[in-house]
Known about the structure:
Helix content: under 10%
Number of strands: 12
Mean pLDDT: 78
Order of helices and strands: EEEEEEEEEEEE
Distance between the termini: 46 Å
Number of helices: 0
Largest sheet: 12 strands, antiparallel
Low-confidence stretches: 1-30
Radius of gyration: 17 Å
Amino acid sequence: MRKRFFASRYVPAFCFLATSVISAQETAPAKGGSIEIIRASEAEYVTVGEGDEGIFIMRGGIILRSGKTYLRAETVKMNTKTGEIFGEGRVSFESAESRLSGEKFYYDNNHNAGVVYSSKAAAEPFFLSGSVIKQVEANRYIARDAFFTTCDEKYPHYYFKAKKLWLYKN
């Protein structure tokens, strides 16, 4: 069964996930928190059979908010039962302290883990890029093919490169 509707400026939705891929900050809601749809050109809810499980699909200039973290993407798909969320197309996560961008992402709320592909991250004074940045726990990350610096120039004066880089918050 498909239910299609068009979202205008503000449509609140309560989902089974928290969307902070950047980190489990104090500003991010706990599991089962709410998510606000600030903007989406089109939204569709697809179910299989008569069950409760469904996929919520949003397209077109999406802006979502969870706590004080904003997610932007062109396409976002959320499984309302499992809490899994997928997105692609100019993906970015922004909070007051940090930002993360990439081509596409996956986040599993049940395991508090996610991955952003072709990613770039910034949390002043640190800058990081990698083919993949994974959140493996609330404050633990792994970056592959990583480029890390504290120089904010377009072409940094110094940097570290690594095939695999482990990052720990605090």
